[in-house]
Amino acid sequence: MGNTLLELLRNSLTPEPVPRRELITLASPVDRGNSMLTIFLYHIEENTDSRDSRMRDTGKGNQQYPPTAWNLYYLLTAYSSGSLPDRAVEEARVLGRAVQTMKDNPLVKGSVLQGLLAEKDAGFKLETVKLTLEEVHELWDYPDLPYKVSVAFKAGPVELESTRVRDVKRIREVIIDIEQSGKTQ
Length: 185
Prior knowledge:
Helix content is 24%, strand content 28%. By secondary structure, the protein is α+β, with helices and mostly antiparallel strands. The relative contact order is 0.20.
């Protein structure tokens, strides 16, 4: 999913306001390098609303356990290497455009999907996440790293296929024994 979000944002933000695609990266705020926009996966949680309990027939005398659905939570943070007076303006422009892109694509599907998501044509939803001040402080609890304005998004659900299978025996013969009961009057 991260590569799909990366592609979506790179397509939308380059060459303006981000001059090169490689300046938008999947990275934590600590490991950002020279990125202008980072996409950081900070939390994963099972989506119990999309739970599928049906076993899937593999056609080989086995059944595969159902997939599990997950929501992934990302933090978008903009950075600028510009001069001090221009830095906040540039970061606001980049972050604003990233948010606009995410809001303009509440359902990610089609040609922007990457990897297994593309193979399975598995689109997903995007929505903003409102973080409390305490949650923001927890996310930015890095020594020697100043707080940066960021935006949190939830992406999902995405299904993870189970690798567990069970053997099943097919019914080969059915015997039905019917007796007529006699009624006396």
